[in-house]
């Protein structure tokens, strides 16, 4: 776990991609289970319910957010154990994200790509994803959970400088 921001911003034809990576000494199947099985996602992001399949919408509970709301999450693509693309809409706007996994020599790199139409909220979004990915790392290693206050506002200026 690191408190140094790792996110990178890449321009695209429709906006920008915010990209954050983590590496795990594990198979892609094991990392895939950490990001797709409800009992495992509950440890770092929140549980989910519903019939998961490409083109369907499930509900995810954001248990580490204020009031722990349940939010609809549409599964745009599910290609185990390499790619999961999802989207959601809430009062903060539209979210389009992908999780991409690549395994090599017993190590799996997880790349979170948040497709952004605007960089307006990058100063809040970036630290949030750093926090959640470190939550994933803590859940996988049994380490202590990070504290969001260590990420925000400390990393805000870094992410704003990427735009």
TrEMBL record:
InterPro entries cross-referenced by the UniProt entry: ASHA1/2-like_C, START-like_dom_sf
Organism annotation: Streptomyces capitiformicae
Family listed: Belongs to the AHA1 family.
Domain Activator of Hsp90 ATPase homologue 1/2-like C-terminal as annotated: residue spans: 26-138
Lineage: Bacteria, Bacillati, Actinomycetota, Actinomycetes, Kitasatosporales
Pfam families the UniProt entry points to: AHSA1
Record's protein name: Activator of Hsp90 ATPase homologue 1/2-like C-terminal domain-containing protein
